[in-house]
Amino acid sequence: MRYVILSFCFVSAIFAAELPTDYTINLETVLRLGGANNLDLQSAQAALTTAQAAHRETRTKFFPWVTIGTAYRRQDGNTQDIQGHVNSESKQFYQGGVGVVAELRIGETIYRSLAAQQRALAAEHDLAAVRNHLSAIVSNAYFDLLRAQASLQVSEQSKLLAADYEKQLTAAVKAGVAFEGDQYRAQVQALRHDLTIRRAKEDIELASARLCELLRLPNGFNLRGDDGELVPLAFSAGSENLSSYVTLALNNRPELRSREAMLAAAKTDTEATIKAPFYPDLSVRTNVGVLGGGKNSHTESVGGNSDFNFAIGWRIGPGGLLDTSRTAIAKSMETQESILAEKTRQRITREVLESVAKMRSAKDRLDISIKLLEATEKAYKLTLNRGAQGIGSVLETLRSEEDLSFARLAYFDLIADFNKAQSDLRRATAAK
């Protein structure tokens, strides 16, 4: 048994030696780091970069491209001339120069550029939505850490009270003036606080790990929040009128702005299928260079060469005029985007209603917990006085101490819940 105990102590010492240093962090730092390092934010930024590049790419379709190069061709054997006679020939030619080509589907290019611009705008709103959502997530994770720290402090204070009372009963039992069973009841109360303390320490470690993940901090950081920030905060300012919150959210939420931009892009695509085919397609080709060649391996008549070609026309059929299936597809996509926009509007309204309900409930419960804490503190003091006068019971004292511990834990829990509800309401309304 001795070896088991020694081994356990040795392993515990190793783990204790490997524990990392605590790092204190505050809400301002959490919000700043969350906005700088989060992977979701980086992914949204990459999507925005892609959408903006796609828009720029559509604008390049308005400009011609230039080719520079050379060509060589040789032919040996039978060939057919213009009159249809087949002759045996051996000839070659080479060419070099600069070419300018411009092929422009005017209507298609204009509407694609407009649609790409609207999709890039949607990506901007998506990035803002990620920032808004991330702000609430990291704030709530930070409040969970503060809640766990407060639970540990309350449990340790309660343990001290219970341990002190246990010592008094132990001394009284030894003096023969107290019942031994009351001593064990006090011991049970102290051990229950030990369990709560251990659970609170676990909660701190879990909350710290969760916050490290969100902030992308190195593994092994023991984050500790600023205990002074676990006070009721008011993130959102404005009217308590429910309809005002809903209106604010519908005006501010970037998710809705994103869906509206995507709907505008879908409408542009539909309009393109109807109007773009009436715009003509243009084609301009010109080459300037040298051309030479001759029979067999001889080169002769080397000299300048140029040609110019211009064409204008309208496409009829697939991708052009009378392509009804393409219009039907575009209208279907527009309908889907319209439905998604309406669903987003309804979801935002629901989130605001839920956030306001949670905020008001948390505020009411916090007010109740303040009264509960005041009452339990007074009851505990009075119970101790009764015990000192010898007219109180041990069970009465233990129950009063238990009520006090519960009231303290509930108070800090509800502060964290209230702050998280305020954070969620700020996210739901996208308030600045």
Textual characterization of the structure:
The protein has 432 residues and is an alpha+beta fold. The protein has a single domain (27-69, 93-294, 319-429), classed as Outer membrane efflux proteins (OEP), CATH 1.20.1600. Helices cover 67% and strands 17% of the residues. The longest helix has 70 residues, at 106-175.
Task: Provide a short characterization of the protein structure.
With 432 residues, this protein is α+β, with helices and mostly antiparallel strands.
Main attributes of the structure:
alpha+beta, elongated, 67% helix, two-stranded parallel sheet, 432 residues, Outer membrane efflux proteins (OEP), 9 helices
Question: Which secondary structure elements does this structure contain, and how are they paired or packed?
Answer:
Elements: H1 2-18, E1 22-25, H2 27-37, H3 39-59, E2 65-80, E3 86-105, H4 106-175, H5 180-215, E4 222-225, H6 242-252, H7 254-275, E5 281-295, E6 300-313, H8 324-388, H9 394-429
Parallel strand pairs: 1-4
Antiparallel strand pairs: 2-3, 3-5, 5-6
Helix pairs in contact: 2-4, 3-4, 4-5, 4-7, 4-9, 5-9, 6-8, 7-8, 8-9
